[in-house]
Amino acid sequence: MSDRYQAFTASPFGKLLVKNLGLPDPVRLARWHDGDELVSGRVLLVGDGRLASPVAKQLDALEIAHEPVPAPETRYRGIVVDASGLTDSSALGALRDEVAPVMRSLETCARIVVLGTPPEQVAGSARIAQRALEGFTRSLGKEIGRGGTVQLVYVAEGAEQDVSSTLAFLLSPKSAYVSGQVVRVGAHGSQPAAPATDWRRPLEGKVALVTGASRGIGEQISRVLARDGATVVGLDVPQAASDLQRLTSEIGGDWLALDITAKDAPARIAQHLQREHGGVDVVVHNAGITRDKKLANMKADRWEQVIAVNLTAPERITRTLLDDGVLNDGASVVGVASIAGIAGNVGQTNYATSKAGVIGLVEALRDDLPNGVRINAVAPGFIITQMTAAVPFATREIGQRLNALAQGGLPVDVAETVAWFADPASARVNGNVVRVCGQMMLGA
User: What pTM was computed for the model?
Assistant: First the structure.
């Protein structure tokens, strides 16, 4: 589905209006396609904390060209800044010294990744300096422009060797619509060291369950996980069975048609996964519905349906898969939350409540999961789908422009984020909620 405003701004007349009126000027985002290089261009690796050396080795393994000193008249695809060694506020000037001189040498759709130490793992002045990194990255994300993104990755002590998949995602076009985010690696639970994977097919031999898989974001998640090597078990309501069968046939997967709110649904899902596949490695709770009304006009059934599908069912299914031992060692559970669950939305108290609850599910389970199982969530913002196409024009335009990238995202942007969480090399990525919203200007 095309962005008509973006097409208009690329026309001669549109360019003239954008320049003279100061209108949003969205850059066509670079997105990754199968067969592409992971990162096409050179990356600067600067800073002298505890992460620089292990990160250099991981960039080499990913075949990402990098260098420690900017060369004259060279354009860079990205910058990785090791700020993990900053121990007091007076040292924060190093961020400006390392990044500012290179900003005009960045290519379109560039990536900046700042690496730090989790503030809760240090004390005193070091904690202050590390927490300050959030303000730096969130503000720079709104300044960088031209389709660029900026992220902060807090890497816990002992997880220095386990940032490969996170760097691969955040430095590549796979993270096109993710910006201004704070990611923690090794901060929650007792996760094992991340195994090495082939970034081209990291899910080879794995089984992935995707609920709400027949169309929209769920369909794209299924396709991306299959692209990465997984056998996808698509699940949707019986009414969507024909679309579900068509999809899973195309991607070489399996399917299951049932209502996830049914009392016996968790047991039936667990039995199918165990009987047909010997367990499951990735579970994506994507199925969701909206029943919008302002609270004063909302009937009980509208409230209960949304909570049942969006929140209660994912919790019941996850707990059953855990209790029955269906989740394989090192499995990844991914919830699909929403920016509405963070910032709220008029007419969506039921939906926002359910999606905030998905974030609560991550927080409730992240420190107590067995056998290296991990849980994370994505929180999409304005994603261009058939559903959002039905939104009134003015509302839709505002929703698409109120972010640092001045455009809506695509279902594949959510899918790529899910695939990063699912990668076995993300074993130390646990307990995160990452917004796929182009760094929305409103909300947290």
Answer: 0.96
